[in-house]
Amino acid sequence: MDIIATLAEELGLKRAAVEAAVALIDEGNTIPFIARYRKEVTGGMDDVSLRMLDDRLAYLRNLEQRKEDVIALIGAAGKLTPELEADIRAATQLQRVEDLYKPYRKKRMTRAGKARAAGLEPLANMIIMQATTKGSALDAAGAYVTPEAVEAGFDTPEKALAGAADIVAETVAEDAENVADLRSFTEGTGEIAAVAVDADEKTPYEPYYDFSEPARKIPNHRILAIDRGEREGKLRVRVSVDAQAAVERLGARWPRRSGVFAPVLDAAIADGYKRLMAPSLERELRAKLTVRAQMDAIKVFAKNLEGLLSARPVRGARVIALDPGYRTGCKVAVLDETGKLLDHGVVYPTPPRRDIAGTKRELARLTKQYDINTVVIGNGTASREAEEVVSDFIAEQAPDLRYTIVNEAGASVYSASELASEEYPDLDVTTRGAMSLGRRLQDPLAELVKIPPQSIGVGQYQHDLDQYELARTLGNVVEDVVNRVGVDVNTASASLLAYVSGITPTVAKNIVAYREEHGVFTDRKQLKDVPKLGPKAYLNCAGFMRIIGGDNPLDATSVHPESYAVARELLRRAGVSAADLARGGIPDIEQRLGSVSSLAADLDCGVLTLFDIIAELEKPGRDPRDDAPEVVFSSAVRSIEDLEVGMELTGTVRNVVDFGAFVDIGVHQDGLVHISKLSRRFVKHPSDVVTVGDTVTVWVDRIDRDRGKISLTMVKGK
């Protein structure tokens, strides 16, 4: 297989661009580096396209290696023919290679294997070929009741004929073309059927107690729900296929004349399907549906995570962060605008103590003493009660104060982690948790990278998914967002630095250690002095590391050091100095420079790279998160009791799943906008309309106060 040509065709890219991208990947360059700084050679491929190419490249290389392994194994057994080798080499999927290899794979002794060992294969060939013979099939079988067959248990013509039929059944079931055809039939006509193990038991799986849906139509979230119900022992699940139609389809692939062996062949074909093919094809279909559903769930999780990490930081926020609770009270952490801890403690506005007056006095003291402008409240247990007290306090004593609710998913994971213990060894886990909530508002990206991505809680069925693939995919998302934003090398934590292109967790810790020992970095070139940060790592990371207020103003931009000479020449031609970058950039530099294409040729620089450099000189260190929606602060609605059908509200999208989006509208529980109510037009998937972190206008559609369920719509009047 010409892998480059295959990738170019599959991804709709030019061969030269694919070839260049593959070469760059093989040289050890990271996806963020290639996407940002090698646009000319890849034709401007972005990180999404490059990751798709990288994944597909790995699959195709694995496919080619498996072909070689299978050819070698079949060849070693002396059964490789030129036709079989050609079929294997022409395969475009691993499944096809395995189908072709199946008849030659070493397997435990089967009924057919015992019959072959007893010398009954010639009789099986007669059945397959529908040989003409005198007398009956049993008469023909009698000739194969040899001493060898008798010793193996085939001591009568009936047993010999049955043994030969077993060989035929296995031959039918292992034929690669038969398998491919019946696989297609199973996938196209099979249904996923589920029934309750105990129909009287109340479980979340009651919608599936008597359930059937075509496999080709069943949505991914239902597959995951059924799988979980089966794992928990609440459902029995099977694939329902029309076995008679399948046998007839299989029989049609084996044309035959009428003769003494015709009934034997018919029975063997039916046996081959029902005993040998159907169970494996049905297991295969279940597995395929599960993989499809999991991959889709991981994709949705990844998109949600990207939205969450790309949320706009609230700069200049001096924060009182409240981590609500009942018996143990609400943990308080006071942070300055850089996230530094100024004070901490506990207040008790919630039952059983309900010290509301004392809580308001403490909030007033902290607000005045530390010049607080924002209160952050976690959305977990006792959030509603804490919010009521904060809202009343603001209305009564601090009208300029604002508050918001933040998602606290994963905060407890971080606060009890080894990382948190290293960062704040003198603080208890509750204070660390409250600090994390406040910092999530100030800089979501910098704080959330400290938490395993799968613990952030912006997906569905995350604990049921392939954990390796989930971690790999989410790790790629974090890496892409971190490098898209860039990091301040003098303030970034080791957790954040570890996601920078080319930087390993060990090197990230070395950067922090170097910073602590030698003081702040003043020049990007100093990164080369960090232990274990070699030339390749420097090439990959340098453009994403920012040094604010250093010796070289270009170090505060995303311009790569390899392009500094071009950047300086641009500044010279524009009649400005590098020092102007520190004063907010040169907004009119493109107008000053004239034609970019002629300039690119003059400077021997790619046009795409030149556009990136000019954009960075216009607005140095621009944070792409500034384009994200602003955080929604306090609302008059605090409780589900305050809601009325038809009420218009502004909310924040907290999670996107296959069947809709959950929106935080300021009450304790998020409301659901079903996929059918996201837009007036048809919506294939909710992620096509909304992303985690979006600010949306919604209308209350239905309220179930008993169950605490809120249905919303984004279509006015619907």
Can you tell me about this structure?
This protein is α/β, with parallel strands linked by helices. Among the domains are: 3-104, RuvA domain 2-like (Arc Repressor Mutant, subunit A, Orthogonal Bundle); 319-442, Nucleotidyltransferase, domain 5; 513-627, Tex RuvX-like domain-like (DNA polymerase, domain 1, Orthogonal Bundle); 640-713, OB fold (Dihydrolipoamide Acetyltransferase, E2P). The chain has 30 helices and 15 strands. β7 (374-378), α18 (383-397) and β8 form a beta-alpha-beta unit. The two termini are 54 Å apart. The mean pLDDT is 92.
Give a quick summary of the entry:
With 718 residues, this protein is of the alpha/beta class. Among the domains are: 3-104, Orthogonal Bundle (Arc Repressor Mutant, subunit A); 319-442, Nucleotidyltransferase, domain 5 (2-Layer Sandwich); 513-627, Tex RuvX-like domain-like (DNA polymerase, domain 1); 640-713, Beta Barrel (OB fold (Dihydrolipoamide Acetyltransferase, E2P)).
